[in-house]
Amino acid sequence: VVEKSLKSLVFIGNICRSPIAEAVFRKLVSDEKLEHKWRTDSAAVSDWNVGRFPDSRALSCLRNHGIETTHNARQITKEDFQTFDHILCMDESNLRDLNRKSNQVKDCKAKIELLGTYDPQKQLIIEDPYYGNEKDFETVYEQCLRCCKAFLEKYH
């Protein structure tokens, strides 16, 4: 069995969107009993929030949907580009940063793209909810759910 992986890399702090996407994808994989085929993680482009738990509003949103996470923020590594098949991000800024970083990595195998590419509703960008309210986190959750479902269907 060839191991496939999803790397959810998003907002610079890795405490809002990417932990939601990671937890949603893990739940979908678990519900489909595909844990043996996927390795899922999330990381930040910068080191601003390394070691921190996700934003309390992100955790609350996930709990409202019956999803728990034990995620701690970390920064992307060179090895991530070499070992993960997919690196998915939320906006153009992160996409530019990731492409720049990947160009500095020998043997980069990861396909880097926007998670919104998979959105059936064609919402390409998943906006950062950090300066918003609970409704904004719910919007991120709904977008991540749609995109992750479509992504899993394509690569399952």
UniProtKB/TrEMBL annotation:
A single MF term (Gene Ontology): non-membrane spanning protein tyrosine phosphatase activity
Record-listed E.C. numbers: 3.1.3.2, 3.1.3.48
Cellular localization per UniProt: Cytoplasm
Pfam family, one: LMWPc
Domain of life: Eukaryota
InterPro entries named among the record's database cross-references: LMW_PTPase, Ptyr_pPase, Ptyr_pPase_sf, Tyr_Pase_low_mol_wt_mml, Tyr_phospatase_low_mol_wt
Reactions this protein catalyses: O-phospho-L-tyrosyl-[protein] + H2O = L-tyrosyl-[protein] + phosphate; a phosphate monoester + H2O = an alcohol + phosphate
Protein's UniProt keywords contain GTP-binding: no
Active site positions, chain numbering: 17, 128
Keyword set, alphabetical order: Cytoplasm, Hydrolase, Protein phosphatase
Domain Phosphotyrosine protein phosphatase I intervals: 7-154
GO cellular component, one term: cytoplasm
Family membership: Belongs to the low molecular weight phosphotyrosine protein phosphatase family.
Function: Acts on tyrosine phosphorylated proteins, low-MW aryl phosphates and natural and synthetic acyl phosphates.
PANTHER family, per database record: LOW MOLECULAR WEIGHT PHOSPHOTYROSINE PROTEIN PHOSPHATASE, LOW MOLECULAR WEIGHT PROTEIN TYROSINE PHOSPHATASE
Name the UniProt record assigns to this protein: Low molecular weight phosphotyrosine protein phosphatase
Species, as recorded: Elachura formosa (spotted wren-babbler)
Gene name for this UniProt entry: Acp1
